[in-house]
Design a protein that fits this description.
About 30% of the residues lie in helices and about 15% in strands. It has about 220 residues and is α/β, with parallel strands linked by helices. The protein has a seven-stranded mixed β-sheet, sandwiched between helices. Strand 5, helix 5 and strand 6 (about 160-165) form a beta-alpha-beta unit. Helix 3 (about 55-70) crosses helix 4. About 35% of the residues are buried. Mean pLDDT is about 85; it is low at about 1-10, about 195-205 and about 210-215.
């Protein structure tokens, strides 16, 4: 079997690793739709979906990143966001490392009064900026975290913050379908063009890490 050329366009084009949270991303979840509809998108099988174990999940994410054999962009949902932060803390990848960015969607509160006790194994929330570009997306009525807490978390992680409006936990129950807004944010991370009208529509809801309004 011929080996792939590491300098080919395919090898250099980032692989999108979809990192689910507690109980996985079932039918109807935008992560699963992305895996089915989009090329170069792969769901990471973390296992133990109902009883997550932090270090086991870190090891499985690490294996998925290394097996990619090419640049990677992470797209994490819910507890997958905390996993991404813990993976970065333990692995300490540099800006020139394999992971080129991460889209962090609806991270839950794990430190103070988490909604589900199964989240406590991921506390305390890692602090400090993540070592790659990140966008954190939060909903104003997410039952798993307060909106202001999510904004503070974005500042701690050095993430661009995006207000998703009233979208619940930004999951299958939110009725987002394939979540086109999320695809445009992913395109931003990948450095691909986004329709001007869509970019303009998001601009008023996006903040830079220091809390200032994002500018063109």
């Amino acid at each position: 079997m011929a080996r792939s050329n590491p300098h080919s366009a395919e090898a250099q084009n980032p692989l999108v690793l979809l990192v689910p949270g507690l109980d996985g991303s079932g039918p109807g979840h935008w992560q699963r739709r992305w895996a089915e509809e989009m090329d170069d998108c792969r769901l990471v099988d973390l296992g133990q979906w109902a009883t997550p174990h932090r270090n086991t999940w870190i090891n499985r994410l690490n294996l998925a990143v290394h097996r990619a054999g090419r640049p990677v962009v992470l797209v994490a949902h819910s507890l997958g966001c905390l996993l991404t932060a813990w993976w970065a803390k333990f692995e300490q990848p540099s800006l020139s490392a394999q992971v080129k960015g991460a889209l962090l969607v609806a991270p839950p509160e794990v430190d103070f009064f988490p909604r589900d006790n199964r989240l406590t194994g991921f506390s305390p929330t890692p602090g400090g900026p993540l070592p790659f570009p990140t966008i954190l997306v939060a909903s104003r009525n997410d039952p798993w975290i307060g909106f202001d807490t999510a904004k503070l978390l974005a500042r701690r992680w050095g993430s661009r913050f995006v207000d998703a409006g009233n979208a619940g936990h930004i999951n299958a129950d939110s009725g987002l379908g394939s979540w086109d807004d999320g695809k445009h944010l992913l395109a931003d991370l990948l450095g691909r063009p986004v329709a001007a009208a869509t970019r303009e529509g998001m601009r008023h809801r996006s903040e830079t890490p220091d809390g200032l309004e994002g500018r063109p």
